[in-house]
Amino acid sequence: MNPRPASGQFSSGDDGIAKGDVLLKVDNVSLAFGGVKAITDISFDIRKGEIRAIIGPNGAGKTSMLNVINGFYTPQYGTITFRGHERRAMKPHHAVRQGIARTFQNVALFKGMTTLENIMAGRSVHMGRNIFWQMLWHGPALAEEIEHREKVEEIIDFLEIEHIRRTPVGKLPYGLQKRVELGRALAMEPSLLLLDEPMAGMNLEEKEDMSRFIIDVNQQRGTTIALIEHDMGVVMDLSDRVVVLDYGKKIADGTPDEVKSDRAVIDAYLGVAH
Amino acid sequence: MAQAATALDTFPKYLLLNAGRFGSRAAMRHKDYGIWQSWTWQEQLDEIRALAIGLQELGLQAGDKIAVVGANRPRLYWAFTAAQSLGAVPVPIYGDAVAEEMAYVLDHAGVRFAVVQDQEQVDKLQSFREQIPALTDIVYDEPRGLRDYAPDGLHAFADVQAAGRAAIARQPGRACQWKAGVEAGSGDDVSIMLYTSGTTGRSKGVMIKAAAAVQAAVDTAAFDGLSEKDSVLAYLPLAWVGDHYLNYAQGYVSGFCMNCPESQQTVQQDMREIGPTFYFAPPRVFEGLLTTVTIRMEDAGRIKKWIFRHFTEIARRYGEAILEKRPVPLSGRLSYALGEVLLYGPLKNVLGMSNIRVAYTAGEAIGADLFSFFRSLGINLKQLYGQTEAFLYVTVQKDGQVRADAVGPAAPNVDIRIAESGEVLFRSPGMFSGYFKEEEKTAETMTPDGYVKTGDAGFFDADGQLRIIDRAKDVGRLSDGSLFAPKYIENMLKFFPNIKEAVAFGDGRDHCAAFLNIDLTAVGNWAERHNIAYASYQELAGHPRVYEIIAANVDETNRRLAAEPMMAGAQIKRFIILHKELDADDGELTRTQKVRRSFVAERYSDLIEALYDGSTERFVSTEVTFEDGRKGRISATVKVADARVHPGKVERAREAAE
């Protein structure tokens, strides 16, 4: 009778890649806007099942890197290999179909829509019925809607946002909006989740909550996560490996401990006497 | 009532009865994944049986103590009945208690098993496991986050039930054996052990015997005519006698449906969806509701504002009379009927109170205006007075004989006596059988002829309703001999929407003085309207204009005190708005949000000194505990303000004592 499913039933996209193998590989990527070099010759990889942090001082090219990964920018040089397939130019919605979802540095939700509707919007990539069936509503489209709603309710339960299910997100405090945005990204059931400063502007308690959700997503659902974050405490605690950028170049790559003691990283963050 | 005729003396026996007589009626609902999931009495019986036999497989035996920790969840309620069906004793514990408090209770009760809600509770229990040697097994409801925990002594609720079902399938007769065990259960067994909230020192384990618990519930269910057609929203703390009595005990004897909210934050929405017929809330909740309604009306358009003002006035004039079926002029009835369509009906619907037949409030005094507001909407809100030792009810108001300043005559089959000291004594069917492992304290609490001392001072008024003044030991005297009843004064202060909490001092002093907490919702809203910027509670509390509005409230309080001969001597001369909110995490309030007066007095002794030595401000630095258990400090320079004292007819101690 009890309909509660075993936890973690809502899954990450199955991509047939074993845990620990390379999921996404960036090779010698360079990106320039006119004469401004945002990213210069960067290579690194993201392995299945890990939490990978991208850090660096302001203007280091972190968000540009994320935009390259999810196809928003096309790099002038270099290749990106996702799930073993090399690609150069693509559109963001292709990235979504391939299993890459993201959240934004400045919350990018539909402000007038409720939490539920926002997260349902994240399911649209999985909705198969065409406009004819959608208009007919009863029948297959309704069945599909119910199936998606169940997934969304699991996410709402997972993120503990039951109380704001029917609240327009524009009315919510910032910390909760961030959580809803994470919910929408999860609704896509991505195999790679990109988080752009998930803790920006949050207080300590909200940061702790968000950290717990990120760890739970990673452990229970096996979702691979790449995140940009400025709070070093959070980065060092959460991530398995860290890549450090400065002025568009990669200056370090390794475990949090390795990165922490790297001379170049310390110089980049604290400045160095010239 | 039909129920009263069936002489059953334990709750598991009622479970069997209800599965027979109301088999297909809903016994339990829980909103999960956005949908109300429900279980009929028959299904509830299956769930409980599977759990009980599963626990038996783990080694639970009659007489074992089993802790239940968490929010209102069907599975936790089933754990109560499952334990009782095996002769084990459930011990519910406040889910938000800090680890040390919890460790003390668990160790004192000697619990062997614990059924908990989630990872948070598992973590808490495991953090002090060596302090509770008796604890062998923990069963958790929600598996989230517990995947990588060491499995020894840790079981998923579903697994325990599965083990129980497997045992039933494997051994024919196992289910019958369990049923026979239930039928053989004795009303003399302890049904539940409820730990008191600890207003005065350490919590004590109040033991209630099954027959007493059932009898008390049968009496009050008959008093309010509760039946299987009623429903309640089970949102009160699981470990509190009120929840166990009103929802669990009354639910079992009358067969009504308990609805568990989705989460603590959704209670208001869930209530609206369920529309319970029986409702209990402490005055604080009603106050919060009224504040929300008032604030939202301030933001409404002009027409809506007019409708609200006009029809609340109509309701104030005729509402209570109509509710109590007293004569009302036809024009009044017509206006009220129109108001029902335009205001009262929609408002009750939003509050989830459309279907309420009986509602109670208790625990603290309730303001007359507040009380009348809800009654005038047509909600049959009444007061009761009770305590854990009585298994709740001591007095209860009858329909139509309801007042804000009294708590009603004795509940059915309860005897009440006022001691010479003014203390209220009672003897009741649901009366406790003693404090667990504390015979001395039990003896102290009982009179030789079997009455229980409530510790509250009170008297019966001309109507035959009991009026509670204060805790008996808190009632004191000023140095000039006038009566000083701190709680009475504090309650008067707290009836102002701007004042959330008050602590009065004065016993043995020259005059009365008070600490105040402002209500952040009400005062914050006021500040917004008056363009007063503030960053924190502390800043707003210290604002000179906030002091002004609070001083006006204190002045009004003094005026009202002056009008009462017994209390006129103890008007507030000086007050302080505290720099932080009193908090249960800092030990200043109990878990049921009552002020721990002596603790507060000790903690802020500097400020008390400032109240009496004439200083105008004082620097304080206070340690605070955050929700995650870490500590920090808040420091501030707190202003001491003077209040005007009104002339009144002051009677001296001699009269007051009578």
Descriptors:
heterodimer, A: about 270 residues, alpha/beta, Rossmann fold, 2 domains, six-stranded mixed β-sheet, four-stranded antiparallel β-sheet, 10 strands, about 35% helix, disordered N terminus, B: about 650 residues, Luciferase, domain 3, GMP Synthetase, Chain A, domain 3, 3 domains, five-stranded parallel β-sheet, five-stranded mixed β-sheet, 27 strands, globular, disordered C terminus
Describe the structure.
The complex is a heterodimer of chains A (274) and B (658). Chain A has 274 residues and is of the alpha/beta class. Chain A folds into two domains: 13-99 and 191-205 and 224-274, Rossmann fold; 105-189, Rossmann fold (3-Layer(aba) Sandwich), CATH 3.40.50.300. Chain A has ten helices and ten strands. In chain A, the strands form two sheets. In chain A, strands 6-7-8-3-9-10 form a six-stranded mixed β-sheet, with helices on both faces. Chain A has a four-stranded antiparallel β-sheet with strand order 2-1-4-5, covered by helices on one side. In chain A, helix 3 (115-123) packs parallel to helix 6. Chain B has 23 helices and 27 strands. In chain B, a hairpin with a 2-residue loop joins strand 1 and strand 2 (35-40). In chain B, helix 2 packs across helix 4 (74-85), helix 3 crosses helix 7 and helix 13 (302-323) packs across helix 14. By secondary structure, chain B is of the alpha/beta class. Chain B folds into three domains: 2-30 and 43-280, ANL, N-terminal domain (Rossmann fold); 403-473, Luciferase, Domain 3 (Luciferase, domain 3, Roll), CATH 2.30.38.10; 474-657, GMP Synthetase, Chain A, domain 3. Chain B is globular. The model of chain B is unreliable at 1-5 and 651-658 (pLDDT under 50). In chain B, the strands form seven sheets. In chain B, strands 4-3-5-6-7 form a five-stranded parallel β-sheet, with helices on both faces. A five-stranded mixed β-sheet of chain B has the order 23-24-25-27-26, sandwiched between helices. The longest helix of chain B is centred in the middle third of the chain and has 22 residues, at 302-323. The interface between A and B is medium-sized, with 24 and 23 residues.
